[in-house]
Amino acid sequence: MFPTIIVLMKFIILVILFFSTQYTYAQLPLYEIGMAAGAGYISDYPAADQGRTRAIAFPSFKYRGKLFRSDKKGTRARFFKNETIDVDLSFGASFPANSEDNKAREGMEDLDWLGEIGPRINATLLETKKHSIELEIPFRYVFSTDFDFTKHRGYRFVPQIDYKYRFLEKYTLNLSFKYGYANEKLNDYFYEVDGRDITTERPRYNAKEGHISLDQSAFLIYESEKIFYLFGLRFSNYANSNNTNSPLHRVNQDTAIFFAFNYFFYQSKEKEE
Predict the structure, then answer these.
(1) Would you call 265 exposed, middle or buried from its count of C-beta atoms within 10 A (0-12, 13-18, 19+)?
(2) Is 4 helix (H, G, I), strand (E, B) or coil?
(3) How far apart are alpha carbons 17 and 204 in whole angstroms?
């Protein structure tokens, strides 16, 4: 699947191995326990012309084991690591959307929670006291769930590069660039219109595999020993999507804004190895 992407991934891996710069890690607690919350305005699905404010709060946990880890790069199982590269199993999730609240999808099935799991290559291309450049190459299996029923929805390929600038000791400016690609099955979930969903304003459409979006994000982060704050903006461009002709593809660009914080009230005395 995705022969062009597989060739691209091989090329990127060679570039990583050639340009990587070695660095050392500060020793951190083996695990931390806390509470996290976040809120933001997010579109109902990629290229939707409607969105809403979302909010969530949950217990948070960081664990920095040799294999299983939950840290700045998310919850993951790490299979390989050296000074500049690690390979892990990463996870992701997306909010659901009620079709009754979205004019373009009115009368269609709701979009459920999406979960993602798959291998990821992480590489540090540059690391200094103030600057870093990191590359992430995830390939993920995607499924939907309403917590009663779960269904396979397809696959995503979402390479991402991050530039981080650290200043005033506890602040970080993070600039992120992400390319989104999905197979036909996943694009069907967002953009397909079959016979039962046809209306005078929503003609039949057969979704295609391919490019979804180019995302550019900026995050301002404050992080101390126990507290983490994040304020972010994300600009998404869908103009070159392979499914711009779908009646469910409503806009060529949109902006999301979000805020999050995390407070860790317990840190283990044991340190990561």
Answers:
(1) exposed
(2) helix
(3) 47
pTM across the whole model: 0.81
Separation between Cα atoms, residue 198 and residue 205, nearest integer Å? 9
Nearest CA among 118, 114, 208 for reference residue 159:
118
* Paired tokens of 112: 């459920």
Give the number of residues written for the chain.
273
- R_g of the chain, CA atoms, integer Å: 20
Least Cα distance to 141 among 165, 158, 166 occurs for 158
Written as one string, the DSSP assignment of 77-144 is EEEEE-SSEEEEEEEEEE--B-GGG-GGGTTSPPB-EEEEEEEEEEEEEEE-SSEEEEEEEEEEEEEE
Round to whole Å and give the CA distance between 32 and 192. Answer: 43
44-53 burial, b at 16+ Cβ within 10 Å, e below that, comes to bbbbbebbee
Higher pLDDT, 162 or 7: 162
Q: Which of 201, 216, 213 is nearest to 242 (CA)?
A: 213
Give which of 9, 28, 90 is closest to 264, Cα–Cα. Answer: 28
Of the candidates 156, 154, 172, the one whose C-alpha atom is nearest the C-alpha of residue 164 is: 172
* CA distance linking residue 87 with residue 85, whole number of Å: 7
Contacts of 49 (CB under 8 A, 6+ apart): 43, 104, 250, 251, 254
How confident is the model over 150-203, as pLDDT tens digits? 999 999 999 999 999 999 989 999 999 999 999 999 999 999 999 999 999 999
Q: Encoding tokens for residue 267?
A: 């840190």
CA 158 from centre of chain: 8
**In 112-259, which residue ranges form alpha helices assigned H by DSSP?**
184-191
